[in-house]
Amino acid sequence: MSNPPAEGAALHSLSPAVQDLTRLNTLGLVSRADAFVTLADPAQLPAVSRLARDGSSLLVLGGGSNLVLPERVAGLVARVAFKGVRLLEARPDAWLVEAAGGETWHGFVETCVGQGWDGLENLALIPGTVGAAPVQNIGAYGVELQERFHSLTAWDVREGRYVEMSAADCRFSYRDSVFKHGEPGRWIIVSVRFALPRPWRPVLGYPDLQRHARLAAGAPAARQVFDAVCEIRRAKLPDPAVTGNAGSFFKNPIVSADTRDALAGRFPGLVSYAQADGSCKLAAGWLIDQCGWKGRTLGAAGVHDRQALVLVNRGGAGAADIMALARAIQDAVFERYGVRLEPEPVVV
């Protein structure tokens, strides 16, 4: 997965074609690429660099779960479909596991739990691919990717070569990384390595997990945590295959403790979480719900009736519909709380 192209691999060519992207993004937004390729073999990567140097901008597409796509994407779209999962090393302190960038994230997590490589179970059922996961620094139910991340191999499209990147190189922060800034389309993530802790201990600090019947008896196995997370997510979040959505659309805003205290004085039910650095994370879903947006519709876009953080495609929505709704929500929250919500998805 992370080996350089074999001798003569530069001869692997790509023939971009027009492609309907409507079914390749989980929001189900009507979109079309003028030039689209699927990367099934790392040996095709030099050809991507040649195409990009021809003047095309590059959009790297994984599972399409964290994107707001326009009606037309004029540059080159490259969908990553590299496959493979392997155990690299069983160290005394960790399982070192590698997965190719095109593996589905949930499938990879399920494989790890099935093999006894525990530590990712709290991140079960998150849509998207392994290669896209570091871009967003995904997280859920008390665990963030950066806590399990070891390193990754990426193709530097501009330089036409492989690069190895550590956590420091990736510059992880809350739902953020170097891949979302500066030079979009420069890197194609080929494979990602994870250090999964030994001995394993369940992470059960999140309230939904503490209340779950599967976990109430104490000392659960990783499979029980995995199953509980899947049940919770299915109960709270719509299935993208049924209702177009990109998961949580807004980040939970981080504010100072003084700001949190001032808001709590005005709004006694304010939901917040203290952070290690002394700041506080506010629950964006609570803010949106309190502004009356849960279940509401604006044009072809709407807010999910069970989770105010999730914007949904009511049918035939485009990027303009989703972003108009997002701006209306941002304005309402800012007017009431003085806090500006930031979208999680990449808006192309």
Automatic annotation (TrEMBL):
Q: Which domain of life is it from?
A: Bacteria
Q: Which one GO biological process term can you cite for this protein?
A: regulation of cell shape
Note the Pfam families from the entry: FAD_binding_4 (PF01565), MurB_C (PF02873)
**Enzyme nomenclature, EC number:** 1.3.1.98
User: Which InterPro entries would you find in this protein's record?
Assistant: FAD-bd_PCMH, FAD-bd_PCMH-like_sf, FAD-bd_PCMH_sub1, FAD-bd_PCMH_sub2, MurB, MurB_C, MurB_C_sf, Oxid_FAD_bind_N
GO cellular component assignments: cytosol
Q: Which residues form the FAD-binding PCMH-type domain?
A: 29-199
Keyword annotations for this protein, in alphabetical order, are: Cell cycle, Cell division, Cell shape, Cell wall biogenesis/degradation, Cytoplasm, FAD, Flavoprotein, NADP, Oxidoreductase, Peptidoglycan synthesis
The GO terms this record gives for MF are: FAD binding; UDP-N-acetylmuramate dehydrogenase activity
Keyword Signal attributed: no
Q: In which pathway does it act?
A: Cell wall biogenesis; peptidoglycan biosynthesis
Task: Identify the catalytic residues.
Answer: R175, S248 (proton donor), E344
Query: What catalytic activity does the UniProt entry give for this protein?
Result: UDP-N-acetyl-alpha-D-muramate + NADP(+) = UDP-N-acetyl-3-O-(1-carboxyvinyl)-alpha-D-glucosamine + NADPH + H(+)
The cellular location(s) given in this protein's UniProt record come to: Cytoplasm
What does this protein need as cofactor?
FAD
What family is reported? Belongs to the MurB family.
Q: Which HAMAP family match?
A: MurB (MF_00037)
Instruction: State the function annotated in the UniProt record.
Output: Cell wall formation.
Q: Which NCBIfam families match?
A: murB, PRK00046.1, PRK13903.1
By what name is this protein known?
Answer: UDP-N-acetylenolpyruvoylglucosamine reductase
Q: What is the lineage of its organism?
A: Bacteria, Pseudomonadati, Pseudomonadota, Betaproteobacteria, Burkholderiales
The gene for this chain is murB
